[in-house]
Structure formats: C-alpha cells, structure tokens
Amino acid sequence: MPRYSTAFGMDVHLRSTTVCALDAETGEAVARRFRGNPWGEVAEWMSGFPGPSLAAYESGYLGFAPQRELSGLGVDCVVAAVSKVPRSAADLSSKNDRNDAARMAKAILSHDVTPVWVPSPEIEGLRDLAAAHDAATARLAAAKRRLLAFLARRGYVYGGT
Length: 161
Hints:
Nucleotidyltransferase, domain 5; five-stranded mixed β-sheet; 20% strand
C-alpha cells in the first residue's frame, strides 16, 4: 500500500456512519457521525483533508454498497476483512462506533488492512440469492423433521415422500 496523508476509518451501520480522519503526520484524529448513510456528504467531508487518502470499513450488514457509492464519488475506499483487522483486549473493552472507526484508521496507516474482493452488483445479487435459497432449504428440512417428530410422538409413522 502506498503512503497516505489521511486515513479514514469508518464504522458503518444502517442508521449511522461514524468516520474518523487520522492525519499521518500529526496523529490528529477528527471524528464525525453522520445520520444514515449520506455518501455524498461523507465524500464531501473527506475531501477537506489532505491527500492521498484511503477509507476503509469492515465488511458487514451493508455489504459492498458503501464501497461502490464512495468509489463512485472519487473516494479511494476498501472493504476490510473482519477477521484480519487486529484487535486488542482494550479495543474489545471500549467498543463503540467512534473507537471502532479510529481503530480502522490506525490499521490503515500501519498497513494492517487486508482488503476483500468487491464483487459486481450482479455477482453480489447472485450470491445473496444462493444464500437465501440455502437458508430456505434448511428451514424446510427443519420443519419437516419437527413435523415427523410430532407425528412419531403421537404414534403416527409417515412413510410417504
């Protein structure tokens, strides 16, 4: 990874986004919380810091939409692999959105961010569809087992398919 002047760690949720801008030279951190996910407003705020910069957030509930939105607005943004972001016991004891965003910004500057592959919207949609199919199939099998057990406890044996 190249050297960055500013690192933007993000903690992204459905109803809020917390961004921490960390200056590589001074170590100064500035955090801001945005209501919802106004990516245009986030990108505009980020543009007020010296570049080059990199933004990163942990993969999660919102998937790859934040990365696509911010990249489309000219922000260099990656999705970090959750399992590869270093965490200490202190990080876990003081867990909140602001600290999580600051931890991600520090990880960027120390080159501890492992980006994940960002699929196209079409491939992401196919993956979501396959996951939904797998979940529905598992629920159907569980319901069948519960029904057969219910019948067996009452002396009925279902032999059909």
